Amino acid sequence: MDHTVYLDYAATTPVDQRVLDAMMPYFRDRYGNANSLYELGRDAYRTLEDARARVAKSIGAAQPNEIIFTSGGTESDNTALIGLATAGGRSSGHIIVSAFEHHAVLEPAEWLGKHGFEITELAPHPDGLIHAEDLKAAMREDTVLVSVMHGNNEIGTIQPLRALADIAHAGGALLHTDAAQTLGKIDFDVDELGIDAASFSSHKIYGPKGFGALYLRKGTRLVPYMMGGGQESKRRSGTQNIPGAVGFATALEIMDAERETEVPRLAALRDRVVEGVLGRLELTSLNAAETDTRLPHIANFIIKGVEGEAMLLHLDAKGIAISTGSACSSGSLKPSHVLLAIGCPQEFAHGSLRVSMGRYTTEEDVDYFVDELVPVVERLRSMSPLYAKIRAAHAAG
Ligand SMILES: Cc1ncc(COP(=O)(O)O)c(C=O)c1O
After folding, report:
1. CATH number, domain containing residue 124
2. pLDDT band at 330, cuts 50/70/90?
3. pLDDT for res 266
4. What's residue 331's pLDDT?
5. What local confidence, expressed as pLDDT, does residue 116 receive?
6. Separation CA 299–CA 357 (nearest Å)
7. For ligand 1, atom 5, which residue shows the shortest CA distance?
8. Is residue 297 located within the same domain as residue 331?
9. Residues with active-site annotation
10. What share of the chain in percent tops pLDDT 70?
């Protein structure tokens, strides 16, 4: 293989050529500031509002003003958590987040926990789902906000948002969802899901990095996270990124137009990977395998007796870009909080591998990955005293 086999589309995606073409005029020719009153500025303003209307239409928002453009999923999550919790001058209350949220939700929740709010982390089940009855039990009279992600970025399970939103609303709380991994990839309609706020990221859908949006249902109060010039109807200050808005809207429309054919194509590739890995390697499993409601392009494996980072580096040497749940930060190898949350034992959580596919993934890529993975795992296992023990335990039943 003379090119990179990229199997990390959940981390980021390349900008689609059609998206880039749509963005280009706004860097040098139509570069106005959307807040300037002369024609160059008015042109930028019209372009920005057109992009906002296109995004609103895609997600079934009642009006374009419900879309706030941001610098990405992280900013949207921080804005939603802190801005919704503290709306109306509130300085205390109860907030529920799922335990397997992205850190862009967990960390602002933790911050709120240190600044007057009480936080409950709701554990998902081994099926990779937050169960409605658990949310019901966790709700309190003073619960003001529930944040549960739509599709999990590591294991790909899709949460029952409608049921969760109904429970949150019955208790007088708002429901925010981090939809960075689902927007464009599966049907997404804010009314069908019943949500009050949602975070989106452009670079997960073949749009530019550093751009995203927050959907905020009309009438929902929010304290702005970014203060300054009062752009985005005073909800997010900062000169708007016009190429970003055009790129994001275009990327989303392409996702919408191609979804019907792309979803079954990706699901077939995912099934091919799963069959290949589980069929050719013993003592491997698919995380949250029992759940049908899952993203079509993500498969997360536990490969017992092997370190995820070792697999990643060996596969990198073969031109394969892939991700593991273990993150080696400041010298300590930390297993994924998502895998631990769904009950995966720590020793196995270290051996996780996430395959995430996308627009340019082919069957040839998938077969190359499986063909290269098998000898890598066999070699690493042959050197692992841990694997010998796991195998002996397994044989003993
Ligand atoms: C679920 C989820 N939320 C938030 C983010 C952060 O988005 P961004 O990279 O646009 O800040 C990501 C991306 O890593 C994600 O997967």
Report:
1. 3.40.640.10
2. very low
3. 98
4. 52
5. 98
6. 9
7. 73
8. yes
9. 328
10. 97
Q: How many domains does the chain have?
A: 2
Could you say which DSSP state residue 323 is in?
A: B
- Residue 351: which domain range? 5-11+259-395
Q: Give phi and psi for 146, each to the nearest 5.
A: -120, 130
- Examine the fold and report which residue of 225, 254, 283 is the final residue of a domain before the chain moves on: 254
pTM (two decimals): 0.96
Q: Bin 124: left if φ > 0, else alpha if -120 < ψ < 50, else beta.
A: beta
Give the tokens for residue 339.
Answer: 């895998």
Q: In CATH, what number is assigned to the domain containing residue 311?
A: 3.90.1150.10
Atom of ligand 1 nearest to the CA of 210: 10
Q: Which three-class secondary structure state does DSSP give residue 256?
A: helix
Q: Is residue 152 domain-shared with residue 281, that is, in the same domain?
A: no
The arithmetic mean of pLDDT across residues 179-192, rounded, is 98
**Residue 302 CB neighbours (<10 A):** 21
Q: Where are the beta strands (DSSP E) in the chain?
A: 5-6, 67-70, 93-98, 117-122, 143-147, 174-178, 197-201, 212-216, 284-286, 298-303, 320-321, 327-329, 332-334, 352-356
Which protein residues are within 6 Å of ligand 1, measured from CB? 72-74, 77, 102, 104, 149, 153, 178, 180-181, 201, 203, 212
Of 214, 236, 254, the residue at which a domain comes to its end is 254
